[in-house]
């Protein structure tokens, strides 16, 4: 076991690693964002994977996670499960991938400890999960994003979170359709009822005349 580890700007010994959560978080962040030097084939593969994620996602949201613990990041990933993949990648590689995917405008926000939520499910639900988590954990900062090729600001993401979910909209739509069908059925039935009453009245009149 090595006696120490050098990590871009700080030096960790096994004893120091266990002293504070802050040091542990620095180690975690270095491992998942830097991870040491990458061979060229690995970089190309990583960029290709990110390009595919950018292109196939309904939306992407950039967040700063400085100060979040490993447990908190895991909790956020669970909250996003089914709607988004929360990924930490090297900013240099993410910038290249964003440019290749036609999202050059994201580059200015790909700095510092950034994690990307690639939304592959309901955009509104993913935005709600991120907003709610940020409220409970101020260390998570919504930075920017993109949807259908257009830039999103942090406020835009929050506005998306304020929208009603797909399930609620579908339920409301179903309710409107049901009410509409009932109204249509009434309108169709009304003339028929009137016609029946008219025929009955004529028959009754004829019977009295006879």
UniProtKB/TrEMBL annotation:
Q: Which InterPro entries match?
A: Ribosomal_uL10 (IPR001790), Ribosomal_uL10-like_sf (IPR043141), Ribosomal_uL10_bac (IPR022973), Ribosomal_uL10_bac_type (IPR047865), Ribosomal_uL10_CS_bac (IPR002363)
PANTHER family attached to this UniProt entry: 39S RIBOSOMAL PROTEIN L10, MITOCHONDRIAL
Record-level GO cellular component terms: large ribosomal subunit
Native organism: Gleimia coleocanis DSM 15436
Q: Give a short account of what the protein does.
A: Forms part of the ribosomal stalk, playing a central role in the interaction of the ribosome with GTP-bound translation factors.
Pfam families with a match to the protein in the record: Ribosomal_L10 (PF00466)
Q: A Gene Ontology molecular-function term?
A: large ribosomal subunit rRNA binding
| Gene that specifies this protein | rplJ
- Top-level lineage group: Bacteria
Print the keywords alphabetically. Ribonucleoprotein, Ribosomal protein, RNA-binding, rRNA-binding
Keyword Metal-binding on entry: no
Describe its partners and assembly state.
Part of the ribosomal stalk of the 50S ribosomal subunit. The N-terminus interacts with L11 and the large rRNA to form the base of the stalk. The C-terminus forms an elongated spine to which L12 dimers bind in a sequential fashion forming a multimeric L10(L12)X complex.
Gene3D superfamilies in alphabetical order? 3.30.70.1730, 6.10.250.290
Question: What protein is this chain from?
Answer: Large ribosomal subunit protein uL10
